[in-house]
Amino acid sequence: MEKLLEIKNLCTHFDSRNGCVNAVCNVNMDIHRRQIIGLIGETGCGKSVLGQSVLKLLPKNACITGKILFEGKDILKMSVKELRAVRGHKIAFICQNPAEALNPLMKNGTQIMESVRINQALSKKECRETSIDLLNILGFSEPKSIMHKYPNELSGGMKQRVLAAMGMSGYPSLLIADEPTKGLDAIKRRQVIATIRKFTETTGCAVLIITHDLKFASAICDTIAVMYAGEIVETGDMEALFNDPKHPYLMALIKSQPCKGLNVLNGTVCSLIDLPSNCRFFDRCSYAAGICQDQHPDLLTLNEAHRVRCLKYV
Ligand SMILES: Nc1ncnc2c1ncn2[C@@H]1O[C@H](COP(=O)(O)OP(=O)(O)OP(=O)(O)O)[C@@H](O)[C@H]1O
Ligand code: NI
What we know:
By secondary structure, this protein is α/β, with parallel strands linked by helices. It has helices at 47-54, 80-86, 98-101, 108-119, 124-137, 143-148, 156-168, 186-203, 214-220, 238-243, 248-255, 290-294; strands spanning 3-16, 19-32, 36-40, 62-70, 73-74, 91-94, 174-178, 206-211, 223-228, 231-237, 300-303, 306-308. 34% of the residues lie in helices and 25% in strands. Strands 6-7-8-3-9-10-12-11 form an eight-stranded mixed sheet, sandwiched between helices. The structure holds adenosine-5'-triphosphate and nickel (II) ion. The complex is composed of two ATP-binding proteins (NikD and NikE), two transmembrane proteins (NikB and NikC) and a solute-binding protein (NikA).
């Protein structure tokens, strides 16, 4: 498959009053056309920062190094004008807080039509029709009435889908969705799965999904990357990872799901300010050995479809 996005040695840190926060450390990731890749891990592991780094959607105190090649061109080196041509058009980002992303003073329809207009050279009537089509794809049974409503007349999940319609309006080649199932019930979650699938199948769009929800990730993703304390600790084919997890962190994450007995993973992620020089999961790992106290593991290739950062397999 053709490579769409190549992330190479990506590091993102923030200068803060308490020190340097290393949110993303040396991440390498390839995204291919039509691929649906899930980025999972506990809160504060750097998932959203990784997603936002791809479009340089970060505050001024952020410093991003490495390479992010999109269609062969480094996003980190693009001019403001080049970046504007990519954002929202070729790569769309659906953020975690739909309530903040929609303008409360404008009707949903006006906002969706505006984003369709920016992305496609269409007449007003065609923009309206495209907007209605998009809302249909997103599972709204009465798209016209949604167009006439204001954002705060909708539930959180509906706002998220309106935002998704806006993100998809440019028919991007990559969609980054941050927690698209947050606050949704099982039925709505299934709708999101169907929508994203249909969208990738009909448009060839690749999707990077950032989520806490392992069940959702396993239902939709073909590839998974597990993040822990700013690093990718395990990555590969979804089935290989979930059927045969190798990293003790992923094993623990799977066991902590409600359907697997809710065995809560004790402890918390180490501070991203004073990172340990040994294995970052050492303190919480039930398999930790002497060597883990002294060494920082590299990402090891078990086979083409499976990589893991754990000294158990060295
Ligand atoms: N502007 C900022 N300045 C300083 N630190 C920041 C800034 N933005 C994010 N961080 C820190 O970067 C780390 C990674 O945050 P991030 O939002 O990527 O986590 P996450 O994995 O997406 O978590 P969640 O699942 O809760 O969304 C956190 O420790 C966070 O506090
Ligand atoms: Ni996040």
